[in-house]
Amino acid sequence: MGDTRLPLLAEAPTTYEPLLSWVEEVAELTKPERIHWVNGSEAEYRTLTDELVAAGTLTRLNPELFPNSFAAFSDPADVARVEEQTFICSENERDAGFTNNWMEPATMKGKLAELFDGSMRGRTMYVIPFVMGHLDAEDPKFGVEITDSAYVVASMRVMARIGTDVLERIEETGAFFVPALHSVGAPLEPGQEDVPWPCNPEKWIVHFPEERSIVSYGSGYGGNALLGKKCYALRIASVMARDEGWLAEHMLILKLTSPENRVYNVAAAFPSACGKTNLALLDPTIEGWKVETLGDDITWMRFGKDGELRAVNPEAGLFGVAPGTGWGTNPNAMRAIAKGNSIFTNVALTDDGGVWWEGMTEEVPTHLTDWQGNDWTPDSGRPAAHPNSRFCTPIDQIDMLAPEYFAPEGVEVHAILFGGRRKTTIPLVTQSRDWAQGIFYGATLSSETTAAAAGAVGVVRRDPMAMLPFIGYDAGDYLNHWVRVSAKANPARLPKIFLVNWFRRTREGGFAWPGFGDNARVLKWAIERIEGAADAVETPIGFVPTPASLDLTGLGMTEDEVQEAVRFDAEEWKAEVPGLEEWFERFGGSLPESLTAELESLKSRLA
Ligand code: GTP
Ligand code: SPV
Ligand code: MN
């Protein structure tokens, strides 16, 4: 360490020059009161959460109900990812593509330098060394997040592998780390009292893909602030993956074991708040089929030496949508949560010091404190928990966690599902004729928007591979990358691809399919298709089940009712085509030819 180091760095637990000089540069700009190097220990977590309780950011829950667990309530204007303010600042605008906001890197850096000047005044600057994926991976993906939010530190400890071990490994191996800078943008003047959830009305979530760096300003929430998650493990990782020949995807991954003990790993890409966590923790309603969890939000995949597709989950926790997660719909998540060690954000509080959200229990409590701190009763006429309220829970608290979660080499993927939230048109499940048509399913995936991002809810938008807000480069190049990478596959071991929709409605307006644990019936059909055992009807969009080919044991639905969920509707699909054409036109020529060919052949089959 040079003599000229900032005195604030005196207690740095490292001599790693690339890290020290970055931390120093940030400290000089942001002017924090002190620097805390996060070691990731139990004791540190206790101190941090005690401080957050004292500051009013966290409410300690009743330990008999939720041990070592806390509730946080955000500023009402800081409740979700802000896609409008999310930028990919590639050197060339063309490389950000039409799905991303872009600004010239130098201009953006100038703007950020102004915003970060003194932005940590009066606060502690935390330095969090982290690794996404395994520390013992062949090529571990390191990052260091600098943040002035202790809530972010506590949440990152759940969501990623952080602390001393990681720092030592970075230093020992001289590894590159992604510098990820975060500030809530709420400096404190001397004597100024803090608020429970500091943030700034102005928010910027910025990525510099060529230098692989992240800068986030103004928000303390989820994907805006826990920078290992969407910013690194998807946006920056997708760029690394493009350059290094792998795939970083917004997918869950689960291990399915058949009654005959055959194992299939299934990855599934659904947009935000469209059912990944629920499927990953599925409790099958059919006998003999077992599901184990590998991941619930992000999957990194590469083709192995035998041409098989291998997948790992780079995360260490769940940041799950609370509403709709209940003892009836997702008992496995509820059991994991009940073990404690969780941070809840924007849920409601029960009078006995527990948490509640819509759908947690069938019986609705008679009195709650809602997520905004107001009294709430069932006839208040508004939800008690915010629709994007979340539970943040260590993944190893899931009883059904697959042992392979801990294997750095990951698992082979046998099937990929693409799915969205569509009231009409998309059948419960469709199997693609081949890999190319499967990529077409992914490229044209559509869904109604949800509360996971700020903005209107319920608007149908195209969401390629469920990655629309997360592709760190040009969307056409991204689809080309899928095509190119899969050319490395052993064709016999290419996963089979299915399009699913748990959200189709009946004419009466209810869900056409009960979903949740009953989705195991769809997984079973998919596996039986792979094994060549299940029946299907060939339609212009691919193979859909006959009602009789699905295991309906104990479902309590008639074949006619099931038919409404699985049917292919030619009229609805003809009405879909102009939207598909418009979507493809937006790529302005960067789309793989194979996809244009798929659309043409779909049109001729529909005609
Ligand atoms: P992100 O964490 O935002 O990426 O969301 P996710 O894809 O993991 O979604 P999640 O599993 O948390 O589900 C989001 C919402 O959809 C919850 O309110 C669920 O209750 C609901 N949901 C999930 N699966 C089903 C299903 O099979 N049927 C129905 N009707 N709703 C479902
Ligand atoms: C999503 O929006 O897809 C999430 C939540 O998983 S967040 O971490 O906020 O991105
Ligand atoms: Mn997600």
TrEMBL record:
EC id: 4.1.1.32
Binding-site residues for GTP, renumbered to this chain: A273, C274, G275, K276, T277, N278, R390, R421, F516, G517, D518, N519
Catalytic reaction equation(s): oxaloacetate + GTP = phosphoenolpyruvate + GDP + CO2
The record's free-text note on cofactor binding: Binds 1 Mn(2+) ion per subunit.
Source domain of life: Bacteria
Binding site for substrate: R81, Y221, G222, G223, S272, N388, S389, R390
PROSITE patterns (alphabetical): PEPCK_GTP (PS00505)
MF terms (GO), sorted A to Z: phosphoenolpyruvate carboxykinase (GTP) activity
Phosphoenolpyruvate carboxykinase GTP-utilising N-terminal domain segment(s): 22-242
Record-given protein name: Phosphoenolpyruvate carboxykinase [GTP]
Source organism of the structure: Sinomonas halotolerans
